[in-house]
Amino acid sequence: xxxxxxxxxxxxxxxxxxxxxxxxxxxxxxxxxxxxxxxxxxxxxxxxxxxxxxxxxxxxxxxxxxxxxxxxxxxxxxxxxxxxxxxxxxxxxxxxxxxxxxxxxxxxxxxxxxxxxxxxxxxxxxxxxxxxxxxxxxxxxxxxxxxxxxxxxxxxxxxxxxxxxxxxxxxxxxxxxxxxxxxxxxxxxxxxxxxxxxxxxxxxxxxxxxxxxxxxxxxxxxxxxxxxxxxxxxxxxxxxxxxxxxxxxxxxxxxxxxxxxxxxxxxxxxxxxxxxxxxxxxxxxxxxxxxxxxxxxxxxxxxxxxxxxxxxxxxxxxxxxxxxxxxxxxxxxxxxxxxxxxxxxxxxxxxxxxxxxxxxxxxxxxxxxxxxxxxxxxxxxxxxxxxxxxxxxxxxxxxxxxxxxxxxxxxxxxxxxxxxxxxxxxxxxxxxxxxxxxxxxxxxxxxxxxxxxxxxxxxxxxxxxxxxxxxxxxxxxxxxxxxxxxxxxxxxxxxxxxxxxxxxxxxxxxxx
Length: 512
Hints:
By secondary structure, the protein is of the alpha+beta class. It is built from 8 helices and 24 strands. Helix content is 39%, strand content 25%.
């Protein structure tokens, strides 16, 4: 068959050559870019998946950078706290040295007070100077702001709270069991009436701080016994109050670590004169009402009888709190707060008055770090850093008054020249505990939160990159094979097209 107008063989060869050239161009493009998917038509679904994976990888990389930045912020805060810790240790030494009344002169006391004033000023200066890009870290700038503090809340700390943009969060407390002191009612029947004029009533009382043996003669009044016990409160950790014809003996502190122990060393025949004299427990639900059926007669109290205090039981925002004394704390991903319920009636240490209350409302503040690729509340970590200035450190309550580290300054109530050095010691010790606790919390944040985040995000980035590579990257082994094939086919198709185009010339032979 010889046709000239329509060369079908040439058309076929042209079509095949075009297809082979397109395949060759595609192989060359993939090998030159290293990508299997260069545009949507290469693999529409693969392009969508790979673009999503690329976006996730970019977010993960940014989150890793955020975590490393957060680590540097905390490092700066830790450096300031380390200096404050050293200053507090020096302050502790100065306070102990100055308390040596007969071994130090007035001039030395004054000199030590000058050093203490300098230390307090330096603490305030460090608190005001530690900063990251102009953001103050230790002056309370990164503490949380709160409102509507309940009257039954003596003190509280907000260590962390996640808040939605513009939102607030309540700290709702339900007290399920009151905090109590270790307590006994010492029934004496009024002034001591012993069996003989030279008889002695000798008891040993023990509290969480220590013990003391006390001896009383016949005729000693209840008020005198009360005063004798209270003169050793700093030694024993126990306080006494008159209660009818007896003594209410209680631990100063609250909670399961506090206790009262009483042992009768010599009763002096007290039970012969007063048959009901003895040691009575208070009712479990009311530390103001003695349990008449729980007495231990004095002549049977030659072994110690002990009563322990009780920690408050509470839930905060539905989470069972960890408690100590009158303090309740929860530590969750969304809320980390510590609340002292000592004052008021909700956790009354003298009577079990249970109920619910909103301790306070968190309105904002804190340091927020974005440590996940997705920007939402679950990917955010919040951290509160309290003010470490001297007027905020070392809160200690004595006789209803709150004292702080700043009260050790010259002219203040806890100065070392003529102030209460024993109370000053408590304030300094509390300040040391607070700074140590804050440093530990920041260290845990760095080690566990930031460290784990960087490691997990690194693995996520690797896996995301691998997933994207499977979808989008070119397989060079496969593509080089396809390139060779397409090169051969394109060359072959070119040769065939040459033959197909020359085929109509055979018709000229028919014309003679």
